[in-house]
Design brief:
The chain contains eleven helices and 13 strands. The protein has 463 residues and is of the alpha+beta class. Helix 5 runs antiparallel to helix 6 (269-296) and helix 8 packs antiparallel against helix 11. It is rod-shaped and about 150 Å long.
Length: 463
């Protein structure tokens, strides 16, 4: 029950309450009607008994049978001493009273309800003594309760049918009332799905009534304002920190590269210098990534489109990493069809490809291949290596921010590189994906018209 939607639960409770009210009302009406019908039957029996007593003369009472009606519906009987029948309704075959009941009726009025052969349904019987001086000992009158039972049965049927219809109608009404009552909450939910922390003007809609729902909306709007202020402070801090990191890291890297070129060092110094330069590259890349993340905000990374020739773009990326790759005995190769262009932001695209090459150098093996190929309405850019590929613990969430596999945790990854790749691809109206196959291959699909489309021949990830 607790897992059902609130509307369904409210409707069920409304229907249950309606059913309880109907059952209570039905029981009250049934008991009251039965009492009224029994009272009417008893009054009729007393009237008939009075008429028989008033006409009783001597031992024989001819009017007793004549005034009694049909024996299957009602009957009359006059008993003498010892229970001997002095007069009775013609056709009455049943022994109405037992000897003990005759003695009790002779002492005072006796009301009974029983079933008798030849009488329809149960029968209500009144036995009473006549006034003094009469030859009779007991006057007995009875009436079938079949009509009463039919009326009560009709009442039960009416309540059963009407109750079901009433519960169905009230359930529909309850669902409509619950829907109307929850409409402000649903409106807030729909707006909350569209609210972003970067837009200060967006608020949850508030109902006109000053009720609990409005107070909830006001509280959520206050919380949204606090989150926006916190988000803005965090984003500004990340932007400032990443911007301030770039200059000292660049200076340190320049000094280290200068020391490496002099060759004036011991046999173990070169290895230390190479490692330090790698870390400088990593710090510079992380500063750039943090700056992009800060500017991306809610995924809306600003870009400047222009015609970009992929050959020179790939060559620039290769030149940036060629020394680092050669120091590890690896190479960066390029496969680009001649004349392939794409309308994109060259700086952002270079950052995305640089992140992929950096990942391949850190976690892959063998040569790294940068490849471009045409696809319907766009271009696919791929970065591949011959490493073990993406581990199962990271493949499904590789494009999430700060997503890091076990290998990345042990080798100092930040988990931002792949998130930057997806942010750049989506800012161009494209997508990023991990391509199934040997080694590790990540592909970017970029459209010519900036309309997001699924990546051809690739398994989408991180969407």
């Amino acid at each position: 029950m607790s897992r059902l939607p609130i509307r369904v639960r409210l409707t069920a409770l409304f229907a249950l309450a309606t059913m309880v009210v109907l059952v209570g009302a039905g029981l009250f009406v049934y008991v009251r009607l039965r009492a009224d019908l029994d009272e009417g039957v008893d009054a009729n029996l007393h009237t008939r008994a009075e008429a028989i007593v008033a006409n009783a003369h001597g031992v024989r009472v001819p009017s007793a049978g004549a005034g009694g009606g049909q024996p299957e519906e009602s009957f009359s009987e006059v008993l003498g001493p010892g229970g001997r029948v002095l007069d009775a309704t013609p056709g009455l075959r049943a022994q109405v009273l037992t000897p003990a009941e005759v003695r009790r009726a002779a002492a005072g009025p006796l009301m009974l309800e029983r079933r008798l052969p030849g009488i329809e349904g149960s029968t209500r019987v009144l036995a009473r003594p006549p006034p003094g001086g009469s030859a009779a000992s007991v006057v007995v009158v009875g009436q079938s309760l079949d009509d009463r039972n039919v009326a009560l049965s009709g009442l039960v049927t009416s309540f059963a049918v009407g109750g079901v219809l009433a519960i169905a109608l009230m359930s529909a009404l309850g669902y409509a009332v619950a829907t109307a009552g929850l409409a402000p909450v649903e409106a807030m939910r729909r707006r909350a799905a569209e609210v972003s922390l970067s837009n200060d003007d967006e608020r949850l809609p508030l109902p006109a009534a000053h009720d609990e729902v409005r107070r909830l909306g006001e509280t959520l709007n206050d919380m949204l304002d606090r989150l926006r202020r916190s988000f803005e402070r965090e984003r500004q801090f990340v932007a400032d920190a990443s911007h301030e990191l770039r200059t000292p890291v660049a200076v340190v890297k320049t000094e280290l590269e200068g020391a490496l070129r002099t060759g004036d060092y011991g046999p173990h110094v070169r290895e230390a210098l190479v490692a330090a330069i790698d870390e400088c590259d990593h710090l510079a890349q992380m500063a750039d990534d943090l700056l992009i993340i800060a500017r991306a905000g809610e995924g809306e990374l600003p870009i400047r489109r222009e015609a970009v020739a992929l050959g020179p773009l790939f060559e620039g990326v290769r030149e940036h990493f060629v020394d680092r790759a050669s120091q590890h005995g690896r190479a960066v190769r390029i496969e680009v069809p001649e004349g392939v262009e794409v309308r994109a932001d060259a700086l952002r695209l270079g950052q995305a490809l640089g992140n992929l090459v950096d990942n391949a150098l850190r976690y892959g093996a063998g040569d790294i291949l940068l490849r471009a190929r045409r696809s319907p309405a766009g271009v696919v850019l791929e970065v591949s290596d011959h490493g073990p590929g993406f581990a199962p613990d990271i493949a499904g969430r590789a494009f999430e921010r700060f997503a890091r596999g076990d290998g990345a945790r042990t080798r100092g990854g930040t988990g931002l590189g792949m998130a930057i790749v997806r942010a750049v691809a989506e800012a161009h109206g494209g997508s990023a994906a991990i391509v199934a196959g040997d080694g590790a291959t990540v592909a970017l699909w970029l459209p010519q018209d900036a309309v997001p489309r699924p990546l051809p021949e690739a398994r989408a990830a991180g969407a």
